[in-house]
Amino acid sequence: MTTLARNTAATLAMIKWEHSIFALPFALTGAMLAANGWPPVLKLVLIAVCMVSARSAAMAFNRLVDAKLDAANPRTAMRALPAGLLSTSFVLGFVIATCAVFVAAAALLNRLTLALAPVALVVVLGYSFMKRVTRWSHLVLGLALGIAPAAAWIAVRGTLEVRVLVLTAVVMLWVGGFDVLYACQDFEHDRQVGLHSLPAAFGLDGAFQIARAMHLAMVALALWLDRLFALGPLGYVGTAVVALLLLYEHSLISPRDLRRMNAAFFLLNGIISVVFFVFVAVAIEVRR
Fold first, then answer.
1. How far apart are the C-alpha atoms of 37 and 44, rounded to whole Å?
2. What are the sequence ranges of the domains in the chain?
């Protein structure tokens, strides 16, 4: 039991399960937009299972692929694999198991979700290799989370509409922007080992400017989303609140002061995703 408890704690820390709050509210937003209200409870449960299992598989796979890089980076050297808290075989088994759960849940939703399940896995697992290929890997991470609302739409309707892809773009730019900021902590290490990132390519000042541009574009697309789905005044107010939270997030850190990165990255982004969902959900209910 002691070993089980230790492995469970190390696994939850490895996948940062609490950060599911970043993506889950957006998946629920996609489901509510598709259903024009609350979908059936079973669909909501299966959507949540798909999102959490896919994200868990992606996080564990990323730790597996990056184990040697994490060991060489002082900031990440104490993660589960380099610190010896979990074995490679255990993490690989976890990835396979969570992928299986994802596919099984997708199969219970409808045929299209099952058919697209391998595509979703390629996207969420493929991100782990992108930092070796392109400085724009931050947007690939954003896409990995951004497909959640589109997938939830498909889960509810069994089809895909172009307008929900605007929400995918909103999430992609939101995640991409804050991942650029987060990567600023490792820009020197990335340059030394030859990893690609926007901070490594353009320096801290350039990275901050790009992150701001991504978040400005996100707000613009969110306003368009409000119009596409006729969310009314509440939708616009929600977008305004999100914009203010993003402004505050950017005020907490600067290229010369990254000390409050955890507050900006973890706390505020969790609040942003929940606020976005709440305003959209209430707007849909009021419209009905």
1. 12
2. 2-287
- Judge whether 148 and 27 are in contact, CB under 8 Å: yes
Phi and psi (nearest 5°) for 245?
A: -65, -40
For 229-280, the pLDDT digits (tens) are 999 999 999 999 999 999 999 998 888 888 887 766 777 888 899 999 999 9
Radius of gyration of the chain (CA): 19
Which 3 state secondary structure label does DSSP give 118? helix
Give the whole-angstrom CA distance, residue 55 versus residue 70.
Answer: 19
> 196 in the Ramachandran plot: left (φ > 0), alpha (ψ -120 to 50) or beta?
beta
The angle subtended at Cα 245 by Cα 24 and Cα 196, nearest 5°, is 70
Cβ-Cβ contacts under 8 Å for 56 (sequence gap 6 or more)? 15, 17, 94, 98
Residue whose C-alpha is closest to residue 273's, from 233, 228, 241, 230: 241
| 3 state SS of 58 | helix
C-alpha 259: how far from chain center: 23
Cβ-contact 281, 29 below 8 angstroms:
yes
Q: Domain 2-287 carries which CATH code? A: 1.10.357.140
Q: What is the pLDDT of residues 105-147, one digit of tens each?
A: 999 999 999 999 999 999 999 998 988 889 999 999 999 999 9
